[in-house]
Amino acid sequence: MSSAADNSVKMWIFDSNDGGARLLRFRSGHSAPPRCIRFYGNGKCILSAGQDRAFRLFSVIQDQQSRELSQRHVAKRAKKLRVKEEEIKLKPVVTFDCAEIRARDWCNVVTCHMDTPQAYVWRLQNFVIGEHVLTPSSSTVTPIKACVISACGNFTILGTEGGWIEKFNLQSGFSRGSYIDTSLAMQCAHDGEVVGLACDARNGFLISAGYQGDIKAWDFKTCKLKSRLDVGKSVTKIAFHRPNGLLATVAGDMVLILFDTVSMKMVRRFEGHTDRITDLCFSEDGKWLISSSMDGTLRIWDISLARQIDAMHVDVSITSISMSPNMDVLATTHVDQNGVYLWVNQSLFSVSTNTENYASGKHVRNVCLPAVSSTERSEEEQVQNLGESYKSSIKPFVITDHQIPNLVTLSLLPKSQWQSLTNLDIIKVRNKPIEPPKKPEKAPFFLPSVPSLSGEILFEPPASSKDTDISTTKNTNHKMSELSSHFSQQLQFCGETKNYSAFTDYLKGLSPSSLDMELRMLQILDDEESEDLEQRPELQSISSLLDYFIHELSFRNNFEFVQAVLKLFLKIHGETIRRHSMLQSKVKKLLEVQSLVWQKIDKIFQGARCMVTFLSNSQF
User: Fold this and answer.
1) Which CATH class name applies to 33-230?
2) Are 14 and 20 in contact (CB under 8 A)?
3) How many other C-beta atoms lie within 10 A of the C-beta of residue 583?
4) Category of 203 on φ-ψ map: left (φ > 0), alpha (ψ -120 to 50) or beta
5) Deepest in the core among 181, 401, 542, 551, taking most CB within 10 A?
6) Over the stretch 176-224, which tens digit does the pLDDT of each residue have?
7) CATH class of segment(s) 267-369
């Protein structure tokens, strides 16, 4: 085994005739810090371009599938010319774009390199660089600074430092037109550098941003200018979300501005960074905008609420970010760090529910970078991390009482589990055997024997059906008593600590039949009136359950599951509640909460029903 400064570990085997070593297997990464990253393959892989002139594909699931994309016989050419491999490779990648739709047909990745007037295409299916080299036909040769691949995967558009924009076909590598603004003195698209390009989901228009602050919308097919917008300040970076058509721009004054590309109007403005913004990206659903800066902060902005919802500070500034399509992992690269760091969604967002501090930008959490192994940190830090992991494990218990208004939270249980609670009687009738099991008329011909040390054959007497029924009944009663005592303990603990989330998790773990049996164990069988009726444990348990239902319905937690349990509860204990006045006040409060929640949900349903009715009756 050997390791070196090139960030690789190699295993050599000495099996040749002359005793020399040959490379058996190896693991490697970037030998210089990566500059830009992008999730690929439904979030299973990450494309990374580093300052070491390597273009790599990292597997998030299995490290054995990570590899460097081939630049065609680099080692052989370097050996022939007697130079280092880094001198043969292409210059470091400045930016790139990828598309998965035509990955099996032709090249689906385009890269722009430092101080290079050509763009290169890559085929990820074969992990190799493509045959075509895309060279713009501009009269002035300038480096390419921006690129984008169309939603159909057939075209790529390149933007140069001199303001030239040209469209190419990925299959043939031929030019398919240039975007020229006739109002400019120079026959090009922008006066200055093209800092970003974006294409909509249906190849209708192309968005280009110039460094001078001019944003232009072009017709994708005819290459003619449709509209323009002047930001009023220099633009350094853009990010586009195709499904909702929002364009995020980074201005020179460290302000994030969002534009609607259909109306070409500003819709959001976010301030908070104190140093140069290095990268930004949208979440897959378009609700969040994530930005990083050289001040060491990573900020999450909620677009619908128009405010910041979280912020964290790391010791090493972030240079590039990318969020997975499933929104469960965020990948980051950092200054002078050769690795790609992964952040799980649960550890990314804070436990605190005071969003006002985050909205004002005053509260920023200090976090450490994810470690490769636990040996890299001291024992004190490991103990601290264990405490933080314990806090993160109880995170759902903390935030369940603070739901977003006018929304409900579902339990994520299988549909059959909570639907069975409301149909247990039908299920029992359906599963009832048609005929009772028949007893054997005669004893078996071969009687079972019991082994003994003396060698004598001892026959085991067959157990009578009566003894079997008694033992089965005892076992069943014992299990029912254990289950009932556990249910009572959980309910009592829930009433004392008001930790309703833990009790909900306990109910979710019970099967529908077990939950039905637990609720029936609380039934009051005798109808005698007594002075200490309120002290009966059954009534206390029913009262605690009513408090639990009121709390869960008030905060709209586990909505469909609580509704099913409530229906079963009222079906079993409805008569008991009617007879005892101490429970009727809580039931009235429960009715008020239930009616209020259903009115809000019915308004949401009514809006959806009206929209569906309108669309179904419309003729397009």
Assistant:
1) mainly beta
2) yes
3) 18
4) left
5) 542
6) 999 999 988 888 999 999 999 999 999 999 999 999 999 999 999 999 9
7) mainly beta
